[in-house]
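A reminder before we start the practical. When you read a complex entry, don't treat the lines as separate problems. The point of joint prediction is that each chain is placed relative to the others, so the output describes one connected object in space. Small molecules and nucleic acid strands, if listed, are placed in the same frame. In the example below there are two entries. Take a minute to note the order of the lines before looking further.
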Amino acid sequence: DAKTTQPNSMESNEEEPVHLPCNHSTISGTDYIHWYRQLPSQGPEYVIHGLTSNVNNRMASLAIAEDRKSSTLILHRATLRDAAVYYCILRSGNEKLTFGTGTRLTIIP
Amino acid sequence: DAGITQSPRHKVTETGTPVTLRCHQTENHRYMYWYRQDPGHGLRLIHYSYGVKDTDKGEVSDGYSVSRSKTEDFLLTLESATSSQTSVYFCAISEQQGYGYTFGSGTRLTVV
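Here is the predicted structure of the whole assembly.
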């Protein structure tokens, strides 16, 4: 399965945009890029996903590089409630999600 | 989370005893998954199902079995629990390829 690489941790100030990077240089043509986040003592929560084009929803935006070897999750205006571990995941054709270790995002008030 | 429930939420059991965890969904989604989460390992897939009676192994399937006799229920069984199976177990559902997963709230299992 294709793997992703994310920074272990990031910090951001409250009410500022946050850009969370993810590298996936071995992505295959049919792999979807998914982002999830997990708050303490909770199950992961779906954030956004995409295949080739940039995607927007009420929670975030996903910017996908033209060669698809990297992507960036964008939180447009971080709040304290956005503090979580963020996982960038490739969903392979056989339907499995393979989680990495994620990025722990800290929001500074 | 709405549409997916796990039971029990917490369980303590003794080494060598069988344990069954239940995942129940009301979304009629085709795909269901069992993950475990341990410090330093993130979430790891145990087993998954792509339809009634259709299941397959994940990366850490040894010591676990699953069954799915109807769309809404996916059972995870530890035939003979060991201390290494102490973990938090998450169930997830998905409608189809390319769609997001919805995770349950988790079951914290302690094997003593």
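Discuss with your neighbour: The beta strands of chain A are 9-13, 18-23, 32-38, 45-50, 55-56, 61-64, 70-75, 84-91, 103-108. What might explain this?
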